[in-house]
Amino acid sequence: MTRPKKLFIKTYGCQMNVYDSERMAEAMGGQGYVETDTPDDADMILLNTCHIREKAAEKVYSELGRYRGLKEDRPDLKIGVAGCVAQAEGQEIMRRQPLVDLVVGPQSYHRLPDLLARTGNGARALDTDFPEEDKFEALKGRGKAKRGPTAFLTVQEGCDKFCAFCVVPYTRGAEVSRPAARVLDEARDLVERGVREITLLGQNVNAYHGHDKGLAGLIRELARVDGLERIRFTTSHPNDMDDELIAAHGDCDKLMPYLHLPVQAGSDRILKRMNRHHTAESYLRVIERLRDARPDLHLSGDFIVGFPEETEEDFRDTMALVEEVKYGSAFSFKYSERPGTPAAERAQVSEADKDDRLQRLQALLGRQQRELQDAMVGREVGVLFEKVGRHPGQMVGKSDYLHAVHVDGYGLAPGDLRRVRITSSGPNSLRGTLV
Ligand code: 5AD
Ligand code: SF4
Question: Which residues form a coiled coil (predicted)?
């Protein structure tokens, strides 16, 4: 019997890459590849890369450097680069790294098996097209293996917003939505295999238009799928939070009370320079309406400090906005110059100022996160259990608000959804007892 070939995938960046890596592994499964968790015994290594900030992109080249020895020992080893660095710098990767056999962009990875077949005897393959055909249709059915209780499901890709700092519209292309019927089929299939919670993914997920009532329409249909208990979605743009979606937060029980709604900055001058097409005030109004619909909604956000031309005063506007919103969690970054984006050409803020602002912002966001988490003590929440904890009998799951929760619960299994009373709050998680 021939030994199955082994595939090692290393995933960088966002949740959509996590989803894409799964789909690529499934596509290669059809070619006799099984996944391995180490590059050392792999027949093929695939890096699924991220281009959003400079550091993320640099990691690819240093990781490739580490594979040189492996390739010398095993010349048959195939090395591929996928994802957004592949899209943005495909030719450059081929030129700089002769050990790379293939490069495939995020919109053409359904062609991975064909590309692989074209390599060998010195031949290399590159595909960074934005093809006409829908890759999800070309990939068709997913594997039938049993799944964990949570899953990502990509429903929308690409972005037409062109924020002045962002590479996504260039690496992922124009906004495209998958038809609702396809998404529902995939969701039902996931549920059949044990999934209880689905997070709908898109670079601009609330601009989804694969259903005539938009993302809210899709969510309401998903909510009718028996066995699917929880629905989340990410990432959203404030301008696409329409009335239907805000209402769904109020009356759709399966839609969880947690929303990631990036604002990036609190200064209207900077928001304008960022090409965000909203003001601090209009963002705050959206939050107000969401909280009217769902008072216990936990908010999360993304922030960039040190965007070109940002002054101390502009930065203080960001701090003031954060004070007003009170975030349950947040991600904050120093602005990173991305080649080809408009902001890269402008007057840059010094590294020292970026460091100082990031530290102040993260201190404030950290305090807010902890305060909101501590306020959970004494409350009863739903927890979906995902895995066994480090201590015997302990299970770990996620609250409705996405906090990690540890519970002593002999007899509980991954996939169980139970009511839990929160008893204490630690640095990164809550502890509770079954009700
Ligand atoms: N520099 C720093 N952060 C960035 N992001 C996007 N582009 C950049 C950049 N050039 C951040 C934004 C976005 C998140 C995914 O990454 O906050 O919401
Ligand atoms: Fe990038 Fe998001 Fe702006 Fe689109 S909306 S350009 S993905 S930051």
Answer: none
